[in-house]
């Protein structure tokens, strides 16, 4: 076999992944994820959309300052302001990339851009040249390339490469493509464009038909050498191609792809759990690679085979992707230095001693309830502690609940609002319902509950329950997260966190709503 080609892994968890309703991340959370991706040796990290909001700009700036090994990227429409904001947000980056895009399909050009094809080509060339005036590394994307005319794609891509783009991205923006068709499109573009050898061709596939990974791999088989993907397949609508599946697919079937990535796969599971904790989006148990059941065997025939020879039913080693590789256990006898050291290994640092002390106090409280504290517990604990954009309008002071067969569940709480404590009592169909109704007596938010999700952080009956609450009010969607060994308390924490997020002045907006 010839020397393997190199496949560039471009992670867009913090940009396209964040466009999932309710998945917005704070600056500190983005830095944590950025450091985890860097530790995994991701080649390019798309940290956000600088022109979307001041918060997104600040987050990209913080990630650019914190990440030294990976290239940090900002998305920008093919307009002056977006490109200038992207360049400014990346000023502190060791390696910077501006990713500019414009729509190329007939339906987008006619109804969204209201531009003629010649104008689109002219704008693309202008944008690439302007981006090149700031950075050497410029990527150009043809939005909705999956439904674009082949002749027009060849024309605009050739012009973009001549203008200085060194990565050309072919997105299946609406998840419309079929693998054989999409692979042929990549192959045809590489053959027909005269200067195709001067750029790396990339793909960015959405999962509307459940084919994002299949389409991406078909593209790689036909010459694409960068794949844009996200941790856990996170993304707007049905999500994006999952990074873990792309990496392990090409690695496991190296006989077909003859491709190598730079990824340290042992960090896949820890990073998956971090993203799940930060976004509040649990990973389904049967999710490939990172799901809890991905390497579980219940069938007697399977168990017998695996015990005799692992490869009878396992095509990968669980430890190769990080299962069982992160078992540092801490408890109530662990000191502040060990606590701080372990969090630093997980990519978490504290800007002030006060923040460290608050996190350590929570750790000690948890250690009194739970004998063994794992890394997943620490990630959830830090998510509650690290500085947030949400103000502390509401605080949970105390909670007691009562539930008995044949009786209406009751919850009694003390909730602080703007520093004033309110004692309230609620009844509901269960203790969680009762607790949330009691909180609403104080909040009077008028928000509608869009999602209530519970996920066990670790195994065992003493596991912390991690609760995600999604609220909607006036078209604005926010997530609240809470964790505790008592699921009623975790639910109250999550609901109060969501209420505080609603009171935040920071509103994240996306100029580009449908994604590349």
What is the number of independent domains? 3
Q: Main sheet?
A: 8 strands, parallel, barrel
Structural class of the helix and strand makeup?
alpha/beta
Q: What percentage of residues falls in helices of 4 or more residues?
A: 25-40%
Low-confidence stretches: 297-310
Strand content: 15-25%
Spatial order of strands in the largest sheet: 2-3-4-5-6-7-8-9
Count of DSSP helices?
17
How would the blueprint of this fold be written?
Blueprint: E1 5-6, E2 8-11, H1 27-39, E3 44-49, H2 54-66, E4 71-77, H3 80-89, E5 96-103, H4 106-113, H5 117-132, E6 137-143, H6 150-163, E7 167-172, H7 179-192, E8 200-205, H8 212-221, E9 226-229, H9 243-252, H10 254-257, E10 259-260, H11 268-279, H12 300-308, H13 336-345, H14 353-369, H15 375-385, E11 394-402, E12 410-417, E13 420-427, H16 431-443, E14 448-456, E15 465-473, E16 476-484, H17 487-502
Parallel strand pairs: 1-10, 2-3, 2-9, 3-4, 4-5, 5-6, 6-7, 7-8, 8-9
Antiparallel strand pairs: 11-12, 12-13, 14-15, 15-16
Helix pairs in contact: 1-2, 1-11, 2-3, 5-6, 7-8, 11-15, 14-15, 16-17
